């Protein structure tokens, strides 16, 4: 896998999406990565072509726990260190390679025999480091929804994003329904 250093938003989004696929975040729909095929679909939706096996899934779920800790860390030097450690698992380079439009880009390549989880660790780690450097630690945020434990990195230009999954967590009806149910249980 070749990873463009300028495209940190992609890796940062992958890191957050992976964390937010966990059942403790998706409390209603539950675990997203229920089996290797579900992981394959998750990756395909993000332009990553891979057919994971059971061992890949185990390792990716372990990486997901590590990424949650990085995204939630209060100490930004700690974030830089932990994300750097993820990058070191399988990276070589940097090299100069051409992107899809034929332009030269600084790239990091993953080792030829790197596992899926280590490739994702490099992609996510570089994304988090890039976002930290370009945008600052303030852009690493918990979801503002009172009924969601998701996290995200706001890589938007304006920097005013509040929800991990805008269409879902920013939905007032969902929040109102949740509060009503809580009152009923009371
Ligand atoms: Zn959310």
TrEMBL record:
Domain of life: Bacteria
Pfam families listed in its UniProt record: ABATE, zf-CGNR
InterPro entries according to UniProt: ABATE, ABATE_dom_sf, Znf_CGNR
Database matches in SUPFAM superfamilies: Jann2411-like
Domain Zinc finger CGNR: start-end pairs: 139-182
PANTHER family attached to this UniProt entry: BLL6575 PROTEIN (PTHR35525)
Protein name, entry field: Conserved protein containing a Zn-ribbon-like motif, possibly RNA-binding
Naturally occurring in which organism (per UniProt): Saccharopolyspora kobensis
């Amino acid at each position: 896998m070749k990873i463009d250093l300028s495209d940190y938003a992609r890796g940062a989004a992958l890191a957050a999406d992976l964390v937010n696929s966990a059942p403790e975040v998706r409390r209603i729909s539950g675990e997203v990565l229920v089996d290797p095929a579900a992981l394959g679909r998750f990756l395909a939706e993000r332009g990553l072509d891979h057919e994971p096996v059971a061992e890949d899934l185990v390792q990716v779920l372990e990486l997901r726990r590590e990424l949650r800790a990085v995204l939630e860390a209060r100490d930004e030097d700690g974030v830089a260190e932990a994300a750097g450690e993820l990058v070191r698992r399988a990276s070589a380079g940097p090299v100069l390679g051409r992107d899809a439009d034929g332009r030269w880009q600084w790239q990091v390549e993953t080792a030829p025999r790197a596992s899926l989880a280590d490739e994702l660790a490099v992609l996510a780690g570089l994304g988090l480091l890039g976002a930290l450097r370009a945008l600052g630690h303030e852009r690493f945020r918990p979801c503002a929804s009172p009924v969601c434990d998701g996290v995200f990195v706001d890589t938007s230009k304006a920097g005013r994003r509040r929800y991990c999954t805008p269409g879902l967590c920013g939905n007032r009806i969902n929040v109102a329904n949740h509060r009503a149910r809580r009152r009923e249980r009371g």
